[in-house]
From TrEMBL:
<comment type="similarity">
    <text>Belongs to the peroxiredoxin family. Prx6 subfamily.</text>
</comment>
<dbReference type="InterPro" id="IPR019479">
    <property type="entry name" value="Peroxiredoxin_C"/>
</dbReference>
<dbReference type="GO" id="GO:0033554">
    <property type="term" value="P:cellular response to stress"/>
</dbReference>
<keyword id="KW-0049">Antioxidant</keyword>
<keyword id="KW-0676">Redox-active center</keyword>
<dbReference type="InterPro" id="IPR024706">
    <property type="entry name" value="Peroxiredoxin_AhpC-typ"/>
</dbReference>
<dbReference type="GO" id="GO:0045454">
    <property type="term" value="P:cell redox homeostasis"/>
</dbReference>
<dbReference type="Pfam" id="PF00578">
    <property type="entry name" value="AhpC-TSA"/>
</dbReference>
<comment type="similarity">
    <text>Belongs to the peroxiredoxin family. AhpC/Prx1 subfamily.</text>
</comment>
<dbReference type="InterPro" id="IPR050217">
    <property type="entry name" value="Peroxiredoxin"/>
</dbReference>
<feature type="active site" description="Cysteine sulfenic acid (-SOH) intermediate; for peroxidase activity">
    <location>
        <position position="45"/>
    </location>
</feature>
<comment type="subunit">
    <text>Homodimer; disulfide-linked, upon oxidation. 5 homodimers assemble to form a ring-like decamer.</text>
</comment>
<dbReference type="GO" id="GO:0005829">
    <property type="term" value="C:cytosol"/>
</dbReference>
<dbReference type="Pfam" id="PF10417">
    <property type="entry name" value="1-cysPrx_C"/>
</dbReference>
<dbReference type="InterPro" id="IPR013766">
    <property type="entry name" value="Thioredoxin_domain"/>
</dbReference>
<dbReference type="GO" id="GO:0042744">
    <property type="term" value="P:hydrogen peroxide catabolic process"/>
</dbReference>
<dbReference type="GO" id="GO:0102039">
    <property type="term" value="F:NADH-dependent peroxiredoxin activity"/>
</dbReference>
């Protein structure tokens, strides 16, 4: 069964580079980002883990927990973390799930149920395990992004998407293309003009179905 937007994400127990977790307990009512990788000690993934580590303060500002996953073991993760920290020039403060049996990869529909890791495997054997999942405080899946192995992820875009999700959820609005914090938002079509004026004050009507407004200053 495919994991779809607004589904409650699977719960599971796993070993990580920072000890055992039960996923729903680890979420702890916060926003979370689970980002996955096909193998430790690979070049693109090392740059990505470094990028996530350097954004530690940004995740905290957004009350968001971050966790990685790779289909290698804890010992490999702990060794790889040293390379990541050296490359990034900062500590790697988030855990990495050890998914040698592919349990989590299959629960999150990253690999088919009959997938397995052959002897002498390469990253190509688990290439689809390269996804970003953004999860809400309600444990529901809010967004996914899937990348090929040879294209590094843009974690600035992950941050931007997280900001948009948090704003849309907290303010009952939508966000337009390329939106960033502080810019005008879109009033949902379910909100009447009268209610929109009460909530947002003046707004711009471009089409009856497209109305822009500034968020009230808190």
């Amino acid at each position: 069964m495919s994991l779809r937007i607004n589904d409650v994400v699977p719960d599971f127990e796993a070993e990580t580079s920072q000890g055992p977790i039960r996923f729903h307990e680890w979420l702890d009512g916060k926003w979370a980002i689970l980002f996955s990788h096909p193998k430790d000690f690979t070049p693109v993934c090392t740059t990505e883990f470094g990028a996530v580590a350097k954004l530690s303060d940004e995740w905290k500002k957004r009350n968001t927990k971050v966790i990685g996953i790779s289909v290698d073991g804890v010992a490999e993760h702990q060794g790889w973390v040293k390379d990541i920290a050296s490359f990034a020039g900062c500590d790697v403060g988030f855990p990495i799930i050890a998914d040698e049996d592919l349990k989590v990869a299959k629960l999150f529909d990253m690999l088919p149920a009959d997938a397995y890791l052959p002897d002498g495997r390469t990253p190509a054997d688990s290439a689809t395990v390269r996804v970003v999942f953004i999860i809400g405080p309600d444990k529901q899946l809010k967004l996914t992004m899937t990348y090929p192995m040879n294209v590094g992820r843009n974690f600035g875009e992950v941050l931007r998407a997280l900001d948009a999700l948090q704003t849309a959820s907290g303010e009952n609005v939508a966000t337009p293309a390329d939106w960033n914090v502080g810019e005008d938002v879109i009033i949902p079509t379910s909100v009447s003009d009268e209610d929109a004026k009460t909530r947002y004050g003046e707004f711009e009507t471009i089409f009856p179905y497209l109305r822009r407004a500034k968020l009230p200053t808190k």
